[in-house]
């Protein structure tokens, strides 16, 4: 190799390293943006953006999705009466080209839920206060348990693995990371 070729190879390595660094920095920025988003309270007469039901009037987990463009929600996150409505709306929005920045669900590891029966259905109380939510990146959901929510069969979210195990022991179901939920998961409920 001549001396002229060495700087060229070094320059390529330097440019490749800078490119990787910029990619990682951009990914870090996106991650930081998601981490800085906080949930809002869903109390009052707030209606579900998926089905129109008043959120705090119904049992079970509730959710919210914060989007990059804040539309058509008009500067607020999408708000939902159930985890199934949350995921359905988010999947439809993603199919339409929108970018969700953070998705939050009721975290039953953070609240003292009440368990009650309505007919033969077992239900958990709803929690709409901002402190009751965790991002789906931190949650495990239990599908196909005996517990139903506002829209019937439901995904019940927890951040603590011991709570997941205790729930499954008592109510059955199949745990999975909340980020692994797909349309087929909802269809199988």
From TrEMBL:
SUPFAM superfamilies annotated for this entry? NosL/MerB-like
**Where on the tree of life does the source sit, at the highest rank?**
Archaea
Alphabetized Gene3D superfamilies for the sequence: 3.30.70.2050
User: Which PANTHER family does the annotation name?
Assistant: HTH-TYPE TRANSCRIPTIONAL REPRESSOR YCNK (PTHR41247:SF1)
Please report the name of this protein according to its UniProt entry.
Nitrous oxide reductase accessory protein NosL
